Amino acid sequence: MTHATGGCLCGAVRFELSAEPVFQFACHCTDCQKASGGAPALGIAVPEAALTLTKGAAKDYSVAGESGGLVKRSFCETCGSPLFSRPQVMPGMVIIKIGALDDPSGFKPQVDLYMASARPWHAPHEGAAPFQRGPG
After folding, report:
1. Does the pLDDT at position 1 exceed 70?
2. What burial letters (b/e) apply to 99-115, b meaning 16+ CB within 10 Å?
């Protein structure tokens, strides 16, 4: 995924990534379920310095996550597409939402986080390590 590109649904925000993911995951916490519209949030963690906005700017919304730490969620102000998040429990890292990538074909979750909050129809991903809670 080095040099991956992505953006929002309407094209107002575009970005590039210059590093491989540190890890890939599915988060089943209730906040991620609400932000995604019901499903777990799928993401890759990369160093924040690897993310470059090439067009537009994202709007931020901050909320205390289930970990107790602040989570800054970034989305397109025009179309509402979720793009990134920056959990306080992961300083220096940014989470890229898989749906925002132009080519997410290399995505394979390594961990399923917050399985304690997963809905009965949210099955763990094959080969992913399940965690009842998350980092922090």
Report:
1. no
2. bbbeebeebebebbbbb
> How far apart are alpha carbons 34 and 57 in whole angstroms?
23
CB 46 within 8 A of CB 94: yes
Q: Report CA torsion sign: 60, 102, 89, 33.
A: positive
Amino acid identity of residue 19, one-letter, is A
- The pLDDT tens digits of the residues spanning 28-47 come to 999 899 988 888 999 999 99
* Largest pairwise CA distance in the chain: 39
How far, in Å, are 7, 84, 119 from residue 75 at the CA level? 10, 7, 24
Specify the pLDDT at position 135. Answer: 64
**φ and ψ at 28, to 5 degrees?**
-100, 10
Strand-pairing partners, residue 45, are 23, 95
Please, what is the end-to-end C-alpha distance for the chain in angstroms?
A: 26
pLDDT value of residue 51: 98
Measured CA to CA, the distance from residue 14 to residue 4 in angstroms comes to: 11
pTM of the complete model: 0.91
Question: Is residue 113 scored above 60 in pLDDT?
Answer: yes
